[in-house]
Amino acid sequence: MKSSIPTTTTSTLLTLFLLSAFTSHLPSAGADAVTDRDGAAIRNGGTYHILPLFGVKNGGLELAATRNETCPLTVVQSRTAQIFRGLPVRISSPYRIAYISEGLILNLAFASSPSCAPTPPNWTVVKGLPEGQGVKLLGYGRSTVSGWFKIEKSSLEYLYKLVFCARASKACGEIGISVDDEGINRLVLTEEEGDGIIVEFMKASSVSA
């Protein structure tokens, strides 16, 4: 028996459903814009150095080849003083907005990466690693957790924390640092609230294509 629901009605219902699912992750109207260290609002699609602060030594964020990796796919905190700012990170949202707000769904990706790394060099979280759930480049190929990143305000004024939310469970955790037996500061998903790193953002002056 054919459905008695007109095609136009079905299309309208589907559109409303998709719109509801899409907008359910929008931040509230009162959400504050995320700002860089100079007080400027972070632009959607802009490139910034992410700088961990307080209690963690060294510099910004970059890539490293860890354990049996033949290509640097692991997101780590730089140990090299000469590049203390780390690699520029592109901060973007799928929503058509000019600036990034707290709690907004985000994609984080290095503005450039080694030729052996996947393109674009988007961040993701991988489970089942010795250090727990680690931050690596999308395409790592092992137990990738589907989800998204977001930026939330920390307990300190004008400073922030990075958060990852799993799509399946809707559970969110802060991004922290785990030091391995080689002294590498790996970015990991923490289990306890307050264990994540506190960061600030510095606009990148130039970015390699």
From TrEMBL:
The name this protein goes by in its record: Uncharacterized protein
Disulfide bond as UniProt keyword: yes
SMART domains named among the record's database cross-references: STI
Annotated keywords: Disulfide bond, Signal
Annotated signal sequence range: 1-31
Lineage: Eukaryota, Viridiplantae, Streptophyta, Embryophyta, Tracheophyta
Family per record: Belongs to the protease inhibitor I3 (leguminous Kunitz-type inhibitor) family.
This protein's encoding gene: LOC100799676
One term of GO molecular function: endopeptidase inhibitor activity
Superkingdom per UniProt: Eukaryota
Keyword set includes Signal: yes
Source organism: Glycine max
